[in-house]
Amino acid sequence: MKKIQSIVLLLAISLFLSSCSNDDGAPEPVNEEEIITTVTVTLVPQGGGSTIVLESRDLDGDGPNAPEVTASGNLAANAVYDGSIVLLNETETPAENITTEVAAEAAEHQFIFGTSGSIASVSYADQDENGNPVGILFELATGVAGNGTLSVTLRHEPLKPNDGTLAGAGGETDVAQTFAVTVE
Amino acid sequence: MRNIFLVFLILALGLPTGVSSQDCRLALQGSVIDFHDKSPLVGATLVLLNTDKATVSDIDGTYRFTGLCPGDYEIEISHPECRTTLYPLTLSSDTNFDFKLEHHVELLEEVDVIGDAIMDKTNSAQEVTLEKNVLERFSSASLGDALKELNGVSSLNTGANIVKPVIHGLNGSRVLILNDGVRMQDMEWGDEHAPNVDINAAGSVSVIKGASALQFGGDAIGGVVVMEPERVRATDSLYGQTLLSGVTNGRGGTLASSLTRSFESGWFVRGQGSLKILGDQEAPDYVLSNTGMRERAGYFQFGNQQLEWGFNARYSIYQSDIAILRASHIGNVDDLIRSINSGQPLIIRPFTYDLDSPRQEVTHHLGKVEFYRRFEGVGKWQLQYDFQDNRRFEYDVRVGDDRGTPSIDLNLTTHTFSTDFKWDASTRYELHTGLVMRYQDNFANPATGVRRLIPDYEKYDLGGFLIGELRLNSKWILDSGVRYDFSRIDAQKFYQNSRWEERGYDEDFQQFVKEDLGTQLLTNPVFDYHNISLSVGTKYDWDLRHSLRINYALSQRAPNPSELFSDGLHHSAARIELGDLRIGSESSHKFAASFEYRKDDWGLLLEPYANFINDFILLEPTGVEFTIRGAFPVWEYRSTNAYLLGMDGSGYVNWSDSFRSDLGFAMVKGKDTSRDQALINIPPANFWHRLNFFRDDWNGFEFSVRGDWVLRQNEFPPNIFVFSPEQQQEVLLEINTPPRGYLIFGFRTQMEFDLGNASLLTTSLSASNIFNSRYRDYLNRQRFFADNVGRNIMLQVKLNY
Questions:
Q1: Angle at B668 between CA B662 and CA B671, to 5 degrees
Q2: Cβ proximity of B750 and B763 under 8 Å
Q3: What pTM, to 2 d.p., does this model score?
Q4: CATH of A38-183, one of 2.20.25, 3.40.710, 1.10.760, 2.60.40
Q5: What is the pLDDT of residues B392-443, one digit of tens each?
Q6: Do B385 and A29 touch (CB under 8 A)?
Q7: Which of A131, A140, B592, B796 has a Cα at 20 to 30 A from B677?
Q8: What is the DSSP letter of B82?
Q9: Superfamily (CATH H level) for B2-107
């Protein structure tokens, strides 16, 4: 019985020793890897003209600040643009290019485009290994002068092939941004 | 349950016919029970000295004297395994009295010495117990499912496999779970964190609705769930049990087995293990893709139990790997809107046993060493140390190199040292005092590549209690207790600068900032909490058929780490969860009563309660925040004043010797008085009825049909308007709207076969939701995405040897 008492006592002592010895060192900051902070849509007019850059940047990621959305200028009416999308993680230095990850797993990703107003249409200009569209490269056609929106949604594990709509594609959303533009 | 059985026995024994004289018509009845664990003592001889009256307690420990005259009596109670005791008693009316005997031989084999505390958890609070045979029906389910058998207990589910008990409308940190005397420290703060315990390891489970059992903790504003193992037998023997269950929904089952070796010298050793495998479950119309699970659990225990002293040591492990409905993993608020509108899950795949992301993997190790010493004529002293290690991984659907890396990786380690002393030598009063010290360390692994939802922290607890019980006479028992708890939480947490400012912490908590890393701050919040709990109550048995319990409990609970520190996107829930450093302890004032009326052919139990909570902490949707991935619903913790008013009721009717009805209902109303609106996640009113048919002479044949009617919750907080980027407009997000009510039916049938050599084979067949009804439950977090599970048929074989 004495033995048992001493075992219990020993355990109790070791408990408090172990709690005291616990290091009070600062935790390591988390290196956020898959955060996309910046979506850049570059629109190069076919046959010359000024390149338009639409950008949405949210440096605090899931933090309270909303993304800052900017457009470098206005689009020309009744024109066709070669579009491309770059996704960056700018919380890292240098910024990590997430587009390469998407391209590497192209069969599991697809950008879905939505247009309204003076943006007439968007068509895909690239394919994954199964011949289905991806949307890192695309063509955008503008209509008559006026206001319009271009929405860009990156779906992860969508149904492929699909009808090009969000509902038809399903999957998870990795990026969803809407750019308001002026066509003149 | 037990009372119903008791009444049955009384009925079976028949009512007395002889009456000695006009004045001598009083009855005295009750049970003879073990002083330590309330188990019935069979074959105790009760002699009314100086009269010709004597009786023997029956199989249920009950006895009955009739035709007694008013006056003073002395009753001698003897039992082969107990010290013979004399009790003085004054009779003036029909009396219900339970004799508690010091059951020495039984005591020697007692595994769980905390069991002592269980016996007088409270006299005056609402408490109920599930016995082993009921628990066994839930072998393939979980503790939370089994507890729902009790009125007033419901559950907060994430699918069918993650089931958190809800007592009187409250859950999470407000419900303490004691596993063989050890308070579980298993990250109970999360909505999708079920208790990490194996139901197959429990011999009985008691629920105390409220905070009156102060020996377990002062913060059980909801209640306490006490799981105890089966007791070890006295003799030199080797025995065990194997239970095999197969279920159709999930196409899997459970194998659970236990073996005990006991010696007359007091030594014993016991091992238990269980394995559960389930594939995808099915709703009436579709497969609930990715809802399978694996669970492995077991324990090993040995010890020596003597009357004067004893010890036991136990190690147990619980591992679960639970897949979470694939369709519930959503990207942003537009996905959520789409899911709510769609009416069926957006991802349905063929049945599989594979567990895919999202899923959670939890391992819980528990070790304890316990020692007691009894001082003759004084009481009992007990000492316990326990260690718990809880590791939780949550895997989300991730891309690229991060596929297979958990999004949440937490390791919670807890050491607890407790000691208590109980003066139980007197039959009139009892005093119980104790001290508990606890140290806890949480480590959030940064290798996840996802900002920590719960930070690294250390927590220190120190608590002490004093509980007294006074038996005024054969009718009145008073109990009262007080407890003080100190806790300190010392966290190290990174806040994004933008969040720190948005919360206004730069004004209130700038002293916590240790380091500025440019975009984020390393902070060291330290908070101390001093909490007082109090309980006072009485139990009054005014005659054979009536009894009344009244209890008041004040309890205070310090906020948990989730309520304080949550900050960020909870990927598996697709919502931003925000804690608040300003949240303080919540204080509950709960008044509860319990009125029982028992007759031979029918009986009734009504349990009303009112719980007024100051600074009640709740988590509710408040709006959206915009990110590059779109808009996410924001769920914020806030504290408010609230009340919960409710009533649990149950009853029985004995139609004949073979037919019986059991029925029950529970309803609760929760109101946020500061905002004058309904509280979120309050269980809707529900009613149930079970019709039983039983014939002991047909190999213990039993058949029962049960109907459960759950009403729609009509009181819920307002829905929120959110901006949908996809629709480019504000839309109403019906995130709080409860689903319709539902009515489901089930049946169960059982038979027993004696195989000789003390072996008994029990077989049962049961079905739930037999009509395969489509329904959704308000307290299932997956109600936005899919229907509840459909028909499930279970076949169970049990062998005792």
A1: 180
A2: yes
A3: 0.83
A4: 2.60.40
A5: 999 988 766 677 889 899 999 999 999 999 998 787 888 999 999 999 999 9
A6: no
A7: B592
A8: B
A9: Carboxypeptidase-like, regulatory domain (2.60.40.1120)
